[in-house]
Amino acid sequence: MEDIQKRRARQLKLYWKNPEKMRAIARKSYHKNSKRSIKYSEKYYKSHKIHANTQMRSRYKLLKLVALIMYGGFPPMCKYCATENDLVIDHRDNKGHLDKDRFGWNAFLIRIIHERDFEKYQVLCRPCNTMKAKISASKRLKKIKIMEELRCQKKM
Asked: Is the pTM of this model over 0.70?
């Protein structure tokens, strides 16, 4: 064990003498062995899948809590009904699913934490969020019906 620690200390000394050179060497080595390292990481992930999933889940819960506190105050509450249970981050323009699909859940939460755009996101409980989505969907349907009626009138 001591040999490994000594070797690691020696490597760190070399690295900090010329970090750019060492980064270039590491990058070259990675590209040279990229297929092998990808296979190794896939094999490692398969054998440690449960541990990796629990880590990702706990990271997601922590990020969600930080985002909820940031956008909903402490303790986080629903903007409409002031409940503290079953809270979600809501996109005010109803386009949140696009961001979540594009970035994934963890990256989405990291992005909104760093963005701090209080005009774009809000905290709602799940029932209020569902009602908001239904209301906006019915408004969209009404607009579509009006547009179709106008098209029919223009054709006549």
From this structure: no
